[in-house]
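TICKET: design request
STATUS: open
ATTACHED STRUCTURE:
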């Protein structure tokens, strides 16, 4: 914050949960943001904390039209943009013929629903399960803030000992970084359940490797209050209006 106690308008909009930083810049440029009742359309404009900021009705309608999808990501697909030759981003699976027959949203599929889909959080290329793809920056920001639980089932090459399970529950040091979980529990001899909030790259794989546990398969089944359920691998559906993370 500057000496006059002001901050960039786009940053303040994000702090208030009105939208993401990228969306804020778009709305400002389009003249869809009001500060104390006056339209502000200049990027870089600054505001004070006490000033009233609101989106116009047009911006609210645009937000309402943005979709969020739940995808059952198979192994081998990257959750974000491809970084290496041959990598396939998971959003390529979002097509009319891969929409789940169990989708109860009633939403009519439109080509624009395939555009500007951002992964709300990562799911490693060697992991499968629930991936959220969204056009709504508010949802992306919430899920990437590290406050929403994510639940994984982990299949092991061999049973974990009581000592290894206890070490995972306490958290481990990996490359001068502490990796921890909200909860680690045993489901069966060769299956563990991890619940995370803050998640780093290859978080569970690195935790397990640090205590000598070898993973065979990693599968995310829940994000917040939304579960993968019966969604088939490679298929997707729209987030229902009554589903909240």
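STATUS: resolved
RESOLUTION: sequence designed for all positions
ATTACHED SEQUENCE:
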């Amino acid at each position: 914050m500057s000496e006059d106690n002001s901050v960039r308008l786009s940053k303040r909009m994000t702090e208030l949960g009105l939208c993401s930083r990228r969306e804020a810049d778009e709305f400002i440029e389009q003249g869809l943001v009001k500060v104390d009742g006056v339209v502000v359309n200049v990027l870089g404009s600054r505001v004070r904390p006490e000033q009233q900021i609101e989106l116009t009705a047009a911006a609210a309608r645009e937000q309402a039209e943005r979709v969020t999808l739940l995808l059952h990501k198979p192994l081998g697909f990257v959750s974000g943009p491809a970084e290496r030759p041959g990598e396939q981003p998971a959003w390529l699976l979002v097509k009319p013929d891969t929409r789940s027959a169990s989708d109860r949203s009633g939403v009519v599929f439109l080509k624009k629903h395939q555009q500007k889909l951002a992964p709300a959080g990562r799911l490693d290329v060697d992991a499968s399960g629930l991936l959220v793809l969204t056009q709504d920056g508010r949802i992306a920001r919430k899920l990437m803030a590290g406050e929403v639980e994510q639940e994984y089932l982990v299949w092991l090459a061999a049973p974990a000992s009581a000592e290894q399970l206890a070490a995972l529950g306490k958290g481990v040091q990996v490359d001068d970084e502490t990796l921890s979980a909200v909860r680690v529990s045993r489901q069966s001899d060769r299956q563990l359940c991890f619940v995370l909030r803050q998640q780093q790259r290859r978080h569970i794989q690195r935790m397990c490797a640090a205590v000598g546990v070898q993973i065979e398969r990693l599968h995310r089944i829940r994000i917040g209050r939304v579960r993968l359920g019966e969604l088939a691998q490679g298929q997707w559906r729209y987030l229902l209006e009554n589903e909240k993370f």
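CLOSING REMARK: Residues 21-29 form the longest helix (9 residues). Residues 31 and 41 are 5 Å apart (CA to CA).
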